[in-house]
Fold:
Amino acid sequence: MNEIIQDKFIPQQLLYFVAGRRCCQEFPCTFRSTEHDIFQQYARSLGLLTQRMFSNGEMIKVFKRTCRHYLEEPKIMTFSPATAINILTMLGRTTNLGKDELRLSSDFIPQRACVAEIMVPHLPFPTIKPPTQRIKDDTQRNLLKQFPGYSFMDTVMQMLYKQRVVVFSADLSWDKSVYMPLLIFEDCEAKKTNAKIICIEKENVLALHNSKRLAHYFAEDLGETVGIQLPHSSNISSETHIICSTAQYVLRSLTKQKCLNISHFIVNDVDLHDPYIDVLLSELRIALTQHQNLRVVLLCQMADARKFTEFFEEGTEFIPKEGAPKTAPSISYLGDIHSRISVAGIHKGQDIYKETPEVYRTKTPRNEQMDKCLEAYEEFGSDLSIRPFLYAVNYDLVPVNYRHSTTGKTAVIIAAQHNNPSHLRVLLYMGADPYVADEQLQNAITVAASMEKNECIDILNSFSLRGNAIKSAKPEFVDYDLIIDLFYLLRTKPEYPSGNILVILPTYYHIVKLNYMLLSHYMCGKLQEFSIFLLHENMGVEYIDELVNARQDTDKVVLATDIVESLPLQVSFKYVIDTACKQYFVYNCSNYCAEHRYEWVAKDCLLRRESLLDGAASDTQCFRLLSKTTFNMLTESSPAQLQRIQLDKICLTVKALSPHKIISEYLGQTISPPPVINVHHAVQLLKKIEALNEVEELTWLGCRLLDIPVPCQLGRMLIYGILLQCIDPVLTIVTSLSTADPLSIPFTEDIDSLWDRFTIYIQNLIKNERGRLADNQFSDHFIFLRLFQDWQNSQKSKMPILYFTNEYDFILNGLMEQLSFIRSNIVSSLRAANLIHFRGTMTMKNLNVLSGNWHVVKAALTGGMYPNICVLDVNKSCLKSAYSERMHLHPNTVLRDFLEPFSSSALNFRSPWVVCTKQRNYILYATMVLPMAVAMFAGPSRIRNSQISPSQNDNVNIYIDEWLWMVMPKTVAELVIKTRQCFYDGYHEFLKHCSDQDKWNADSLLMVNQGLINETLAKVFENEDLAVGFSKTPNIHYHPIVKLPTTYLLTVNRHFSWNQEIEDSKDILVKRPLSSYFDVHSHFIERQFFVLHTKETCEDFYKSSSTPFIESVLGKFARPIESPNRHIFVILYKKNEDEMLSISRAKTINGVFTLKEYFRNVIPVYEIIEACRSISVSMPNFDGRLICSLIDKRVGNLIMDLFAFRHHWIHKR
Amino acid sequence: MDFQTKYSKRHLNGTIYIATRRVLEEKLRSELESGAGELYLRFKAPFAAYDIEKIAQLAGELGEIYVIRFKVDFRNESRGYAFLQYIDASLQAKAMEVLKQRFRDISLDINILPSRNLRELVMITSAGTCLTPLKVYQQMLKLCSFNSVRVYEYRPNTYMHVFSYVNNEAATLAIRHIRTNILLFGSAAHVSWLRTNQTLDHDDFVTECCQQLDSQMKPESNAESCSCFTFSRPQVEEGQQFQGNATTCGIMQLNECKEEL
Structure:
């Protein structure tokens, strides 16, 4: 037998491996350890590399020569004597020194958690009973009658009696999610049957909004007949019959109580295939077998709902014929939109910056390098010589339209010169614009024509036929300029009657950016007045309320993500601008990581969005920002998310729901079974971080991660943050990783057309800013921390800032608003999961003892980011990781400069270890960490004896996991292992017992030990960091109480909305005939500008100037000429520094002449004078002796534009 | 307990209420609402053993409960205290004697005290910001309703606002709401409870110079002459949320006021 294995089996396996596609493979414990040597011998004889591994027992990993995973040699780890003393003292004090051999007690191994013991947050559902009879009043009856399906209702109820599952499919305007619960409730009331109706929505805000509307029907407060149960808000009483919740939350409560006590489940939006809703459907299918009387109503908006009844193997579909006759909107695609805009002849403002010279072009090394690339290409014109340029475009974010600093030539022009059709094709495919002219005013087309080579001319001709929509050809770039153009079309041209406009954008970031662009155009008075409202997933319910309660007569502009598809609003839209793209979070199994990906949505999604238009109105229009050909290629229905997302959280949920089933089996039976490989990877990851144990049972860590609303790895980072007592910075980092990064380096397509000539300059400045914030700490995560802190400090001293400086500022405020929203959400969940206590040793205060210490935070990151750890291979000068073959540093990270080859960035590395956030093969955010941190916190919580093996010179090898491999002196190893043991003792203790608050009261020993360890670690890491050459960290302050304005965007939009101003000037309205005021059809706003001299700073001026002062210097001039169609603006001018400081609108409100500040910035007067010269306006004279003077309208407009369209990076001083 | 007809149970975030279903007459209800005869029950750790229904059951034997408010954490386990009110407020004294013993009989260690019913908050807004008391008042009206506010200028340009609420619960909600929106009141603003021993109840005076403000918060003569003012009771317009009583607002030195006490 032995011989057969040795002679046949092992060589055969190895040959298979050699022939196969994989570059390395583990050969697990099927071979006895005695055979490992033989195995290694054979492998070597085949020219393969081998390595012994320790992960759940010894095994052999075999690598091909080309494999990039192979660590040729272990990384060395040592530390200074001072560190050793520190650790020794600590171990002495925690009484862990005496025991020489490693303790292998059972609670050192990740234990299986008892699922029943994980508590269900909040009350169990109240008992079921029939509703008490009540008398309906007329309004209620009328409300019910408004339901478009009122006439079918008997049929539906009949169906519900006959069938246990009913799928009800109708579009959003039917408002099914409100009416179905009501009708079922009314029916139960009439028949005196038990009613406990659970309404399930996709998102928390949807459930909140829905519950409010339901309660409104009963004319009650929330918490009586209608209740709500969400993770952080619950309002429910013994009379509650209708409960709104989300799928995720209901699944969490179902872990303990199966669907007892429930008469009806109403699940909304099943067609959107939210992953949790899909899991819930499986759970409901199981529940139906156990509870005879359960009824399930599925609401969706799709033509064919058979797949749901097929899934349940029972039930019927109910698809009503058209309720009310609908007029089809006219739909325009990209080409059509472009031609309409060019026909309409839109005149946007901002001419002023169009002529800004590109003086910034020549300055940086990056420009020089790119110039060299182009020169080389121009000289040789060969395939080889264009390669560096293409590389820079593809990997270093250089714009493909880069113009040479002196000649102004772009790569396309050079390609045309060389008459190289294949280069031309490649460049055009990459988005190059052939119309860009060089210094001799030649562009690619004229060059090609002068060369008289037909092939090139043909290529360029066919390009110009396809149109100029390069930006819009890819889903990941939203063409803001086009949307603004559309707004000019809709809000200034009389052929488009005014009405509400809905803009559907892919993410929150896009919403914020467009919000600023719209506001700045609108505040200049170039568009008819409107109020802006925002809808997205991470918002408080006040955003919806603001929209729903807005005055009827305002023209509303709603900027929304796809949440609007499932949010029935009582707002009729006349225009929909649909960007037709969506951000998906897709798991990529080939490189083991999830990535954000923009894709065009499917046709069914477009239809849903189209149906948001007011069906009754006649001339509704839908603008889809994709070309007709792209539209024709779209798939019919969107893929189910379950099949694409990273499944870590889902796996945990599923495991908690049915502990005795294999996860992949359970998920295989859902309505949209995910690919097995994804499930496998997710389970492997969970095992690796010990959220599941080796036999796929939930551990305590898994139980805790379930309740933290972030991906598992980030959740684990939070737990390390708690244990290392630096929760605040870790929270900031975790939240930043799950929101958009305000300082990510933009592609040229991300920059508005006004500024895209300056792409390189802007990118460099952002890179510098990142460098400044990182402050030589070699960490991108540190930037998040600094940025948040800087922002917080700027908030601290001010009221919510209601004036604008520039777009970046606005976006930063908007993103930070979301960040603090999500952040506080996570904190509440941590409290709810009992990971942070209200009293005892685990209070917020106690957990922030080390928050100011970046060294400890880095350690927490190391623990939390594991297994995303890379190591520098100096010889090959590359980064290696256990997962990806080739790791590149994204130009974003501070670990490398633009266009810097890795070998030279690697010289700066202080430590070979890097923990990172990956996106495909890119390292998007990285932090360099100490070898000691890796040795301490990476890998499984328990290091077995077999993972340690002696090496030469009194050194030992430690195999932390199957890939991480370190060598260290024996004494060091001993200390590390012991400290590790100490720490993980506390770790397991905490995870197991954290829900028992009494164990953690003030005199408990548990946290004292932990505190001691942390204190020592803080000292040790600080010493070691300095020893390897990290510079001293700038202080990161921890603010015990975070004072943040919560609803910045809401406040700003309200502040600048027309709606509000009407409210303010009610008195004037009464006197004035309404019609003339509201008649803004003819959009002629005349603007008058005053210059006001001041000696103070802007802030002081607005603080100190009282109403009488303004009245006396301004009111007497401005008041008589003010009218609804003539706006008065006041420009603040500081004479002694020759700068314009701010611009505000002056208005008589309630008889008082007031200033509302619009923009604040610093614009030197010479810039204004230059601008005047460029558009040949006579130069103004600002040095008049009067405090206040009227200036030329054209100059005023120009100054307004200068304020409104200022760019943060370009005009930074 | 009879949750069908006599009592109702409700869970709102961190509080479980068991309240009577009886409809009370206006006067009695408003008295009870402002905290008449409220008892404070303090439990001994570990709190998990304390069950609201058991406690309510026992307390109900003494007389009809108006409301019992049981504070819970995220696991719906007690946070160590509860509030109890009988419809008959005079039961307070008796309850303190009897109930403690009754609880002990079923081995629940509960300390019963008359509730302090803290319902006043102090907010200090500091100098340097352009926030006049009037602005604070108007801002506060938008935020949440309160009964009355008194303002003291205890250092130049530093104001102390004492907001009083109908009962402790309203004040608790308010303090949370204010804390999340504290930035609206300037950078240095902070808010805290006004302890009973520091109460400033006796000083609702009207100084000579104070000028009357109308419901629009406009002074009748020029506002610049003195910076103190009083409001008449604002007329509650239809649909407006404001439920304030007579709102007084005087400005004086705090140390003077302490002498008065």
About this structure: Residues 139-318 of chain A form a domain with the Rossmann fold fold (CATH 3.40.50.300).
